[in-house]
Amino acid sequence: MLQKIKSLSEKYSSEIIEIRQHLHENPELSFCEFKTCEFIIEKLKEFNVKKISKIAGTGVVATIEGKNPASKVIALRADIDALPIIEKNDISYKSKNNGVMHACGHDVHTSSLLGVAKILSELKDEFNGSVKLIFQPAEEKLPGGAIKMLEEGVLKNPIPEIIITQHVDPALVVGTLGFKSGMYMASTDEIYLTVRGKGGHAAMPHEINDTVLSAAQIITSLQQVVSRKAKAAIPTVLSFGKIIGSGATNIIPEEVKIEGTFRTMNEIWRKEALKLIEHIAETTAEAMGTTCEVLIMNGYPALINDENLTEKAKKIAKEFIGKENVKDLEIRMTAEDFSYFTNSKPGILYRLGVRNDEKGVVSPLHSSTFNIDEKSLEIGVGYMAYLTVSLL
Fold it and tell me: Rounded CA gap, 320 and 378, in Å?
């Protein structure tokens, strides 16, 4: 089966590259993936996949049944949305939708899963069980498409035992795969603070409430949540990236807005920390003679890779690409709504190497020049197909 899947992934590689380039050229934002959805359905039908349906607005779910289809079910997931970024790549398949770009590799994830669908549909008489294909919208925007799909029953009829997803990694060279067992990616919550007070002339601070100084003090005080309250064993990040105070050199504004993010990998600490953030922001503002309105938008939970499944996936990866090409990953404080799926079923998110220094393919995710070495598609398709069949 190993050689057969390798042969098929090589055979269909040019077709999968064409699919990826089409998707890259026609990106759509979260919850607006209407043409992408139709394209996925069209390709699945072309690949002789029978059980296909729309879900969560612009999502797609399909099932490939092998022999004894009820004996075991594995789910494979790909995210399909793009980002609000103006692409700066000089390529023939550059985004046609100005201001929208596949800068996080979701075009790769989608085309890879379509390639897997093509191979597994062809081999369905040679493996037991069933494979559920999940094409998820809106990974990039809260509340995310995963939770909506779960609410609509994506993991029912049939019910998978495990769920797997693949994500590109521009830090890994093409030809490699990366794995991390256990804690891998952080939860993410958005913090919105509004500091209010009596504004006025900057030359007469004794007559006003300095909202700018108060905002600065709040940001500084909140750093103790990480430096003095977080346990060393729990990765924690609190960062503020946006401050708006519409005053001037000689005007203290009545209102200053602050926006940031809180990330960690422990749900109990997450709840405690968010309460601390609210308390510290409010009391610090009060001490400065101002008020602070705190709005916290809860985001994705931490992503924990199932340890047993990760070890199996690593072993199968060594069979597929060789021991030297299987890499161990470190935890990262970025977030992924695949965590909703791993909270429901044992699951794993692993990384596909797409970097090629010689070709200048080195840009990070979410950048205007992000791209991949398309040789990675053959590996991404082949390994996921082989992993699935091996686990079945």
Answer: 12
